[in-house]
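Incident log, structure service

09:12 report received: a user says their structure output differs between two submissions of the same chain.
09:20 pulled the input from the user's history:
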Amino acid sequence: MRNLKLIIKREYLARVRNKTFVVMTFLSPVIMVGMIMLIAYLTSLNNDEEKIIGVHDVTNMVFDELQDQKNTVYLNFSDLELTTAIDSVDKKEYYGLLYIPAGKTDEEIASHIEFFAQEAPSNFFLSDLEQKISNVLTDRKLESTGVNLATIDNAKAKVNIKMENFSGEATSKMASYVKMFFGGAAGYLLMMFIIIYGNMVMRSVIEEKTNRIIEIIISSVKPIQLMLGKILGTSFAGITQFVIWIIFGSILLFSVTAIFGIESTSIQGEAAANSVNPGEIQLLVNDVLQLPLASIIVAFLVYFIGGYFLYSSIYAAIGAAVDSETDTQQFMFPVILPLMLGIYVGFFSVVENPHGIVATIFSYIPLTSPIVMLMRIPFGVAWWEVLISLGILFASVFLVIWMAAKIYRVGILMYGKKPTYKELFKWLKY
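09:34 re-ran on a clean worker, output below:
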């Protein structure tokens, strides 16, 4: 036990004293906050960009129905020839020209409408424009058949379905997206931690094996102690780095938003501009507060421990089996594949049906359960399902550590030969 503590301490100090580790610990939050502010700035620029649309309306019935919006202005070019209107819009560098030709029927007009632009407009803009023109042509067609449009408008019933659970608590229509966001963020974060710190363990083993330091160390400690020491020391270094990221990043984000004057009032103003119902926002906040946040945090920590030990043992075994990082490529794909599979199953199966057969099965498979079960928990999972999943996961952890220790014991003293899967299987029998 004393040797294990010494190895953990050595690995921890070796990580936290590394210049690259220190630089990335403090530089990563700066980069992340910078990216957030850059995205927010670019988004505001994109939203503030004014679109000037020229309209060449031969029918003289659409232009009057196109209302100017906050960042969209419509100009009438119907008195010009089409070619002249196109050249004029092009020279003035407007967003584009909408051409509405004449036709015998509304269907003929609709099928020959064109939009001229230097660059292809966004799908959202085109869809909105198509809807506006469709409404104009539809109303015209109804009027031509003698239908009173005012009667139709008065007869329309606006349906707004309110959401409540069986306990009578109101929820928003965005509740599933809120759960998806929290579950997806937890699962993706866990995957990144496993990959980043698992690779740290593997590189550490390869480095000591290449420098032949391992031959000296192995004379004093058991291989399994050395492997566990590396895994635990690296995990403590990772936790330290993560805590610093949260604290430093939060302080930096708060300071930057205060300096640039980004306040909640601006968010409320934007919501009002987008006609967002304040009651719906309150329901959305209630959905966040009703999430099992404590369960999510505890589950994240427990599944992180289980998933990290499971994959770090595999990474350590791979590091011991090869002589250089280049030789690890043949083994990395089978390791990364379950993690990627867990992410895809989470986003495409859990979100659609969190209690379906696919999501349930993958939340029990130990190589995918840390990610998939984390994504299921915000949607509500029975406690016995979580216990079964954790039981299988930690039983698998002990099995994988035992197998990895056997490979580690043989591999750390093997040089000059690229091992195959067949040879690794033979090492398990030693």
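09:41 both user submissions now match this output. Likely a transient worker issue. Closing.
09:42 reviewer note: The first strand starts at residue 51 and ends at 57. The chain is about 70% helix and 5% strand.
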